[in-house]
Amino acid sequence: MLARNDTAAFGELVRRHQSQVRNFLRRLARDVTLADDLAQDAFMHAWDKLHTFTGSGTFIGWLLKVAYTTFLQSKRRSSRYGEILEEVGHAADVHGERQTEDPVEMSDLDRFLAVLTEEERAVMILSYACGLSHREIGLAADLPVGTVKSIIFRGKEKIRENFAINDHQYG
């Protein structure tokens, strides 16, 4: 059992999982700075709630649930979330400081994810980028497995339609 004050154990937790958590949040939030802040918060929440991990799923699935919950809570804290991001983005554009990805530099994955709703994007990232099973995604996103499957299906269809992809060979 880990001692709550064990900074070496906390450091190891972050070292092992920071890449996956940060990448998940970066793709979900579409803002590098915000995602990095959220990842830091998520690790602090995870450390505080480590005793709640029951082992019924994978640890990374549990940790990504904590990260997703942290993301959702950050949006709820600010009723003006979208307006603030837009204002900050506009101010950063004016001052040449914007740190979000330039559309020209966006990867194909980021373009595909951009056409999805927030929930669809989260589920698709958990499935394809993080490699979680439908069951693990359901646990992480608090969704029934059937809903997870439907969201993945709809998300793939939306991407196919928006990008005129007719070849279903790759899912």
Walk me through the structure:
With 171 residues, the protein is mostly helical. It is 70% helix and 0% strand. The protein has eight helices and no strands. It has helices at 7-29, 32-48, 59-77, 81-95, 108-114, 118-129, 134-141, 145-162. The longest helix has 23 residues, at 7-29.
Give a short synopsis of this structure.
The protein has 171 residues and is an all-alpha fold. It is built from 8 helices and no strands.
Query: Secondary-structure element sequence?
Result: HHHHHHHH
Q: If you compute it from the alpha carbons, what radius of gyration comes out, rounded to the nearest whole angstrom? A: 17 Å
- Helical/strand content category: mainly alpha
Instruction: Indicate the percent of residues in helices.
Output: 55-70%
Strand composition percent: under 5%
Q: What distance separates the N and C termini? A: 42 Å
Q: Uncertain regions: pLDDT < 50 for 5+ in a row?
A: 97-104
Counted by DSSP, the helix tally is 8
- The outline comes out as globular
Mean pLDDT: 82
Biggest β-sheet description: none
Number of strands: 0
